[in-house]
Every structure is written in C-alpha cells, then in structure tokens.
Design goal:
alpha+beta, 6-stranded antiparallel beta sheet, 12 strands
Length: about 190
C-alpha cells in the first residue's frame, strides 16, 4: 500500500516535471524576432530601438503554466535617465531601467494555454532623445516560440487574448422595465480601439 502510494506520487511528480519542461528553453536574437516596430540591426545580432518602439514574437503553450522571458539588453541613457524596458504579454508586464553594458532582465508570467504575443519595448523616449535600448536576445522558458509574422499567429494570439482576457460576465440594470418583461439588446458599436 505505501509502496503503491509512493509510486503514484512519484509518477505524478515526474509527469508534472516533464510536462513543464516539455518546451525547454529557446533563444532568439533581437534582429531575428518576428516583429519590430522600428529601429536598426545592432552588432552581434541585436536590435536597437532609437525611440519608443518594440520587438516581439509569438509563444505557444498547450497547457496553462509559468513562462519566463529573459531579455539580454543594454542601454544608452540621456540626461541621467536610462531607457525603460517593458516585457509585456497580454495584460501583464514588468519594467526595468536598463544600464549600459549587457545584462539579463527576466520576468515569469503565469499564462493560460494558447498563443500569446510577447514584446520587449522602449517606452520612455517621447522626446526623441539619444536614449537607446538594444535587445541582444530573448530567451523563453516554459513555452514554445512561434517566431513567424503570420496571419495564423496573429489570429491565434488575438483569439487567446479574447478568450482569456476580454470575456467576462456583465450586469445590466434596466430602469423602468418590469421584471419578466421581454427586452431587445443590440450592439451599437463593436469597434475596439
């Protein structure tokens, strides 16, 4: 009996460990990422954002889990202010002030299953200063990288976002309507800004 319980517990532990490690770790250089809003290629395969903008790619998870995104980056400050790196997936983000010299900046996200867009962006250069952020590489642990700027990836990421972050219950109070009365509801404007 004890042997059976120990065997069952060990099997569950190993299964959970293998499932979480199934994706392993994948690294892409900054210049090879699927999407870039602006910037230029940098030495060593990196990508330099010389103003507000982003680089990013798609990641996929078969099951909900923890995903760690690590960005190797370096910055050029201006007037004592370092460039701000934001790591963003869906409605979650982490921010870092990036100093000169390469360093790793990482955050772990708890994500639902599906396809997600992950971006590393520079957001504090509104005055078009000489401030720069160079993304040397992006490493993802706990998810697969689908590094293709395709309609299929964009639609899959949009659907994952809608399914997990845009849906919810709504309550409506109708003034002047008797309980049990039939009402008609029409969507007046369905454009999302």
């Amino acid at each position: 009996m004890i042997r059976t319980l120990l065997h069952a517990s060990l099997s569950l532990l190993l299964t959970a460990s293998v499932a979480g490690a199934a994706y392993g770790q994948s690294t892409r250089s900054g210049s090879s990422l699927a999407l870039k809003s602006s910037g230029d290629a940098a030495a060593g395969g990196g990508w330099t954002l010389e103003g507000n903008g982003f680089v990013g790619t798609y990641i996929t998870l078969a099951n909900p889990g923890e995903v760690t995104v690590e960005v190797e980056a370096s910055g050029v400050s201006h007037n004592g202010e370092e460039p701000r790196l934001n790591l963003v997936i869906a409605d979650s983000s982490a921010s870092f002030d990036v100093a000169a010299g390469n360093a790793a900046y990482a955050h772990t996200f708890s994500l639902p299953a599906g396809t997600h867009f992950v971006r590393a962006d520079l957001s504090n250069d509104s005055k078009k200063s000489p401030r720069e952020l160079t993304v040397g590489s992006v490493t993802v642990t706990g998810a697969g990288i689908a590094n293709s700027n395709s309609n299929a990836n964009a639609l899959a990421a949009a659907n994952s976002y809608i399914e997990n972050f845009r849906k919810g219950d709504a309550r409506l109070t109708l003034v002047g309507v008797q309980p049990g009365a039939e009402v008609q509801v029409k969507l007046k404007d369905h454009a999302f800004n």
